[in-house]
Write a structure and sequence with these properties.
16% strand, alpha/beta, 8 strands, 8-stranded mixed beta sheet
Length: 299
């Protein structure tokens, strides 16, 4: 029963977005108008979009989400400096499942291999990787499995221990729709920005309950990375809202402590969905991180 409620709550997030979609919310570049292309990866047709020019930056979406719900101002800010590649995880949005068996066996490593497969299909030997929420867990697995293919690493709303993540997702499943609305953003911030729910981007294709359930199972089976991330040698940026109830800030702090040389940026008044709170500032922080040279040894 809890699993069903978790799926229903996850779908509520994006049905909520769809109900309140407003064209005025989108940046003038409207990345959602960019045609969706597909590549076949590990037996599944994966939908993706590319915007901007420059070094490649792969965006990895989180739980129950699809590429349509990346904040358009954030994407536009990143695309001014980078070739931004967005894609739908297996079974979400414009991406196929690759068959029932693949969904039953869905895991963080499977989704990491899908993300790497999208890169390879596009002829990319190396790309910076930005993962949000579940996407940040996938991004960690990418950097651990295939470090030569990952440039700099941005982990937004992340964790290295599985228990807090599973507990948070289960807590979401116990919330009523009204309670969940209050959960999205910190109450003081909503008080100052009451129109926020009218500005959220909408998915063109509703999330599949079966896929969301498979993603939940993948999260529940994830063993965490706390014993492995010390081996990540990538320049890493960890981003978190100080009022994030889904991926607790303590997990981001722990992540930054474990990954050698990692940057940690905490946003006061920010929640798990902070990219909808101040996407322009978030984009500037990411661009600054990606463009700075941290290596002072050979200058």
């Amino acid at each position: 029963m809890l699993g069903i409620r978790i799926v229903a709550t996850a779908l509520l997030v994006f049905s909520l977005f769809g109900c309140h979609h407003s064209p005025a919310a989108l940046h003038e570049d409207r990345f959602v108008d960019v045609p969706v292309q597909t590549v076949t990866v590990n037996g599944a047709d994966m939908g993706y979009r590319v915007v901007g020019q420059g070094e490649p930056l792969l965006l990895v979406m989180g739980y129950a989400g699809c590429m349509d719900v990346w904040d358009p101002v954030l994407v536009s800010g990143l695309a001014e400096h980078f070739r931004v590649i967005m894609f739908d995880n297996r079974g979400m949005g414009y991406s196929g499942t690759g068959g029932a068996d693949s969904m039953q066996e869905l895991s963080m490593k499977t989704m990491a291999r899908d993300a790497l497969g999208v890169m390879h299909a596009l002829g990319l030997e190396r790309a910076h990787v930005l993962g949000w929420s579940m996407g940040s867990l996938i991004a960690q697995e990418m950097a651990l499995e295939s470090p030569r293919n990952v440039g700099k690493l941005i982990l937004y709303g992340t964790a290295v221990d599985p228990a807090p993540v599973v507990a948070a997702v289960e807590r979401l499943g116990r919330l009523s729709p009204e309670e969940f609305m209050k959960y999205l953003f910190p109450a003081p911030w909503v008080g100052e920005h009451p129109d926020v729910f009218k500005r959220l981007p909408a998915p063109a294709i509703p999330a599949s309950p079966a896929t969301v359930a498979a993603q939940y199972s993948a999260i529940a089976r994830w063993q965490g990375t706390s014993e492995r991330v010390r081996s990540i040698s990538k320049d890493t940026l960890v981003l978190v809202g100080e009022n994030d109830p889904l991926t607790p800030p303590a997990q981001s702090i722990r992540t930054a402590e474990l990954i050698p040389g990692a940057w940690l940026v905490r946003f006061r008044g920010g929640g798990h969905w902070l990219m909808y709170q101040n996407p322009a500032t978030l984009a500037r922080v990411i661009v600054d991180f990606l463009t700075v040279d941290q290596n002072l040894l050979h200058q």
